[in-house]
Amino acid sequence: MSFDACYDRLANSILNRFTSDQARERAAIDKEVSQADLKLKVAELTGSLAEIKLTLTEARSDAADKDHEISRLRKLQQRLVDETVEVYGYRYQKRTDGKGPAAGNPMRDGCFQKNGLLIEIANVYGTGIQNLRCPNCKAEYAGLHTYTD
Ligand SMILES: [Zn+2]
């Protein structure tokens, strides 16, 4: 064997050994890194899961609020049909003694249309029976018909 050939063989052998040691080291590092990565991913997923739970809870609460509002509007609609009557563009309580269609003061149309509230407009004390004011939005009316005996 020539010196050169011998040198090459030895060099290759050292190189191989070195490379495989390096590969083992690299593999060990990769394993550690991948476990650290895994822990990080688990932490991230746990965080995402907590966010999803929170979003679901909020969505459930929103749905409950909507159910509640739908139920309120259904009752309002039923009350509107059963208990009130429209006379000349204003809604009144239905009169139940057979003497006419309506009773009392008209309902505040703005509050009904905007907020779905059935509020009978109140007399303003000390200003005469013709002056009326909505107890909710304080809108004032004059000259509306009030059905009283
Ligand atoms: Zn009002």
Number of strands: 6
Quickly give the structural class.
alpha+beta
Helix content estimate: 55-70%
The pLDDT mean sits at 85
Oligomer: single chain
Q: Helical region count?
A: 2
Gyration radius from CA atoms, angstroms: 41 Å
Question: Largest sheet, if any?
Answer: 3 strands, antiparallel
The kinds of small molecule bound in this structure are: zinc ion
The number of distinct structural domains comes to: 2
Low-pLDDT segments, ≥5 res: none
- The end-to-end span amounts to 133 Å
Shape: rod-shaped
* Succession of helices and strands: HEEEHEEE
Q: In percent, how much strand structure appears in the residues?
A: 5-15%
Strand order of the largest sheet: 1-2-3
Walk me through the structure.
The protein is an alpha+beta fold and 149 residues long. It folds into two domains: 1-83; 88-149, no CATH class. The chain is built from two helices and six strands, in the order H-E-E-E-H-E-E-E. The strands form two sheets. Strands 1-2-3 form a three-stranded antiparallel beta sheet. Strand 5 (131-133) and strand 6 (140-142) form a beta hairpin. It starts with a helix and ends in a 7-residue tail after the last strand. The protein binds zinc ion.
Summarize the model shown:
The chain has 149 residues and is α+β, with helices and mostly antiparallel strands.
Detail the topology: elements first, then pairings:
Blueprint: H1 3-83, E1 84-87, E2 90-94, E3 102-103, H2 109-115, E4 122-123, E5 131-133, E6 140-142
Residues 108, 110-111, 119, 134, 136-137, 139 line the site of zinc ion.
